[in-house]
Amino acid sequence: MKKRLALYCDGDGGVEVDDTLHQDLKVIMQENSSKFSLSPDSFEKVFWEQQEQAASVQKASLMRWHPLMIKWCLYLRHLSGSAYELLRNSGLKLPSQRTLRDYSYISPTSIGFSNQVDQQLMEAANIAECEEFQKCVLLLVDEVHIKEDLVFDKHSGELLGYINLGETNNQLLDLERLVSDDQNQELASSIIVIMVRGLFTRLCFPYAQFSASTLSGDLLYDPIWEAVSRIEFCGFKVLAITADGASSNRRFFKLHDPTAKFLHKTLNPHDPDRYIFFFSDPPNLIKTTRNCWSRCKLVVLSETVAKGIQVTCGPDATETVNFIDKFDKFFDCFNVSSYQKGMRYRKPFQEPYRSANDFRLKWLQQEFLPYLNDWEESVNAMNCSKKIKKCMMLSAETQLGIRITGVSTFLSERLCQDPLEQFFGCQRQRGRTNDNPTVKEFCKNTQALRVVNSLCAGFVKGNCRGKRHASRSISEMDLRPLAKRPRTKSCT
Length: 492
Fold this sequence. Notes:
Helix content is 46%, strand content 11%. By secondary structure, it is α/β, with parallel strands linked by helices. 27% of the residues are buried. Helix 4 packs across helix 6 and helix 12 packs antiparallel against helix 13 (318-333). The strands form two sheets. A six-stranded mixed β-sheet has the order 5-4-1-6-8-7, sandwiched between helices. A two-stranded antiparallel sheet has the order 2-3. Strand 2 (151-153) and strand 3 (158-160) form a beta hairpin. Residues 407-411 have low confidence and may be disordered. It contains 19 helices and eight strands. The radius of gyration is 27 Å and the shape is globular.
C-alpha cells in the first residue's frame, strides 16, 4: 500500500484525463458541494470552496487565495517543505512556494527593531479600531539557545551570527574589547526575544530579537526600554514586563532602584500617571518551589496532594499541608484562564477578576506574603550554619520572584510566558532533528510565524499548555487581507 501511494504521489502512477472529463468532474464537484454537511464557520468549508475555485480558474496566477488558506499553507510549509510539496504534487490545489514567500518575506529579516515590524504590530492588533482597554499590553522577555554559526546574508551583505544587542550595547562591547586588547568578536549562543501580549485581547506578537551570549541585566536595560518607547509610540499602553528568574532579569529589575530590597514597579516615562509592573513568570516560580521539595518526592503542589497528606500523616504534617495549600492558591491566582473554570472545579481562586478589591489581592498581601516573611524570620533566628538555613527555606531567588509578583495589583494567566515558550517550540519545529537554529534561520522563521501566529500551536508535548483558541471558529479569527511583497519585473 505504501508503495502504491508513493507511486501516485510521485505522479508516475496517476491517470491523466482529457479536458472533457476534467470539465465533467468540475461540474459534479460544483453540483454536489451543497450536499456536504460542512459548517459554514469552519476551515473545512473554506478549504473545500478554495479547492473548487482553484479547479475552475484557467491559470494559477488568476487564483485569489483566502487569508486563512495562506496562513494554513505557510504553517504547513514551516513544519516541512518537502511534505508541503508532496501534497501539492498529489493533486491538491495549494499556493506555490513563490506565492507563500511573497507573504512571509514582506520585510527584510534583521536583528533588533524595525519600522516595518512596528507597522505589522499595529496591523496585527488592528490598533485603529481598538478601545482604550484593548490597547493595554505587557512585554514577555526570554532567551532561547541557538547554534553558534556564521551565515552570509546575500541581501544585506553582512555576516550574521555575532552578538548584536542594539547600537548602544554594541558600542559598549566594542569599547570593552578595545580596552582589553581583545579583537575577536564573540559568536552568539542565544537569542533574546521580546514579545508583545495583549492583556484583554488575543494579541501575541514576537516583536524583536537580539543575538547574545553571556548576558547581564545592564545589557538588557537599553533594548527593553527602547521596545517600551516604540510600542508606546505605536499607540499601545505597556503595563507590565514578565521575565523568568534568571540573574540577568533580576539585575534588570534592580537597576531601577538599587536601594530597594525588592522592586515590583517603576514609573512609566511616557506617562507619569502610569506604572510599569515587573513580574516573575508564575509557572517558573512554581517549578523552582517544587524543586526545593524534590528530596521529599513531592512533585505536585495541589489541593488533592495536600488533602492526601493530611489524611495519611495526620497532625504531624500540618505545616506541610499548610505550605502546599498556600502555594496551590498562589498558583491559582495566576492561572485564571476562563470564566467557567473556577465554578467547574469549585476553586474560588480561579474565578475571573472583576474588582480591584478582589479577596485574592487581600489574601496575597495579608496572608501569603506575611507567611513567607514569618518563615524566613523563624529560620534566621535559629542557631545554625548558613548552609543548613538555606536547606530549610526556599531559595533566595524564588522568594524574590514571589514577592515581586505577589505585590502587584493585576493578576491573571496572561502574565505567564506560555506564548513565548510556544513560539520557541515553533522555532524548533522548523529545525526538526536539528532543533537549534542559527541567527539567520531564527530571523527567517520569525517572519513566517508572525503571519501564521493564530494557527501556530507549538509542540504537542511541551512545557506549557496548548493554545485554547487553536480550534475556535473562523469568525473569531483575523480574516483581513494579508500584506504581500510586490513582485519586481526583471528587465530584459
